[in-house]
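User: Can you recover a sequence for this backbone? Please restate the input before giving your answer.

Assistant: Of course. Working from this structure:
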């Protein structure tokens, strides 16, 4: 049985099933292993990890601990309550109408970040006059329909991951800041910070950056230099604002003081940096990498919510969930009718009732002609169904994005 326990309950002889933190936050080669020494427990604590999941069939048990399913059920219920309190962002054009423009912006932004990284590696300053127009294009796309570009950016290949991750963080920061009502200039600065937040990785050797496995302690230390290196590079950029500098330097800080490079406590971390930390981790844990399979967007949000007890600002995590939706566009869901479908559009009135494109009946085991179902509408008016759960695409051997 898988159980969630506090690190204070860890003992030698327990089998760690999952370290319960984002992959970039710990120095272990594996996330699952048998605890053989007290020094391993000390290393877990030192890494700023507060809770872990253990496998009681492979090691010692903690009787009073909650099961993994109990934790999931509680978190899911709380998330649904949060999502039902506020409407989703206004959509100006349909997802389908924005897809073409979003695809072009994704390609252009990826090329731009690649150029910025190459210039930084050569010691050149970032040219803001090249970056600003791209921020404007991303912002306009998000204003038209935030789901289009953010959904496309979930598709990354290992060779271009670093560049597309930066585009994703920039785009999500723009959407996040817009959803909490920031002014246009603050949104622009936040997008700029997101797009440039990993500029320091230009100085990390490719064999470390793209290593298909866990990093050694020495390699982990090199990776941890990138916020400071990126900050130093941006300081050479004429006209750079305080917000991009802050996001670049502090996007790996955590509110419990366990982050880097300065181990700042929560009250010393700005709101923008706290928002960037949430966005950065969300995009990282939902992306496929050569050394781990990305979570679904809904599972990623649940993990962020779980970790907000210690690592992130809980109110900001809740605001981010409302920004992207509990069931973001592209999520595979199972409906009460037994049909499988893909979320294709958020509904402004209720994040729990998106528009879904159904294509398969789990009851008859038969593929059906794709049909749009607006869950916000009653039966007989193109609706009348309800989401029971989100589903793992691998389980059903389907790529949800092909239905968008």
């Amino acid at each position: 049985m898988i159980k969630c326990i506090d690190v204070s309950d860890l003992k030698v002889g327990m089998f760690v099933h999952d370290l319960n933190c984002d992959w970039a936050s710990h120095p272990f080669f594996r996330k699952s292993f048998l605890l053989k020494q007290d020094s391993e427990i000390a290393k877990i604590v030192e890494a700023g990890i507060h809770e872990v999941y253990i496998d009681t069939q492979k090691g010692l048990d903690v009787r009073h601990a909650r099961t993994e399913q109990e934790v999931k059920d509680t978190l899911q219920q709380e998330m649904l309550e949060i999502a039902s309190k506020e409407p989703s962002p206004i959509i100006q054009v349909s997802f389908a109408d924005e897809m073409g423009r979003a695809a072009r912006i994704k390609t252009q932004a990826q090329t731009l970040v690649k150029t910025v990284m190459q210039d930084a590696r050569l010691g050149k300053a970032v040219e803001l006059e090249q970056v600003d127009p791209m921020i404007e294009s991303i912002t306009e796309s998000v204003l038209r329909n935030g789901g289009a570009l953010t959904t496309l950016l979930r598709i990354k290949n290992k060779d271009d991951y670093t560049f597309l991750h930066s585009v994703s963080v920039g785009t999500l920061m723009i959407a996040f800041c817009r959803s909490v009502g920031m002014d246009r200039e603050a949104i622009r600065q936040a997008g700029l910070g997101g797009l440039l937040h990993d500029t320091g990785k230009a100085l990390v050797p490719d064999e470390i950056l793209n290593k298909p496995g866990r990093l050694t302690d020495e390699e982990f230390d090199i990776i941890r230099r990138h916020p400071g290196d990126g900050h130093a590079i941006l300081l050479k950029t004429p006209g750079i604002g305080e917000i991009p500098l802050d996001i670049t330097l502090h996007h790996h800080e955590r509110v419990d003081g366990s982050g880097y490079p300065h181990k700042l406590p929560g009250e010393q971390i700005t709101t923008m940096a706290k928002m960037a930390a949430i966005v950065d981790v969300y995009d990282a844990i939902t992306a496929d990498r050569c050394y781990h399979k990305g979570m679904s967007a809904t599972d990623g949000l649940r993990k962020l919510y779980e970790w907000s007890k210690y690592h992130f600002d809980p109110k900001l995590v809740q605001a981010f969930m409302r920004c992207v939706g509990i069931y973001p566009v592209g999520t595979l869901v199972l409906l009460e009718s037994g049909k499988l479908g893909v979320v294709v559009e958020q509904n402004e009135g209720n994040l729990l009732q998106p528009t879904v494109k159904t294509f398969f009946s789990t009851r008859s085991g038969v593929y059906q002609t794709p049909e749009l179902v607006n869950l916000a509408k009653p039966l007989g008016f193109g609706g009348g169904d309800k989401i029971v759960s989100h589903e793992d695409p691998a389980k059903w051997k389907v790529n949800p994005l092909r239905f968008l």
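That completes the design. The chain is about 45% helix and 15% strand.
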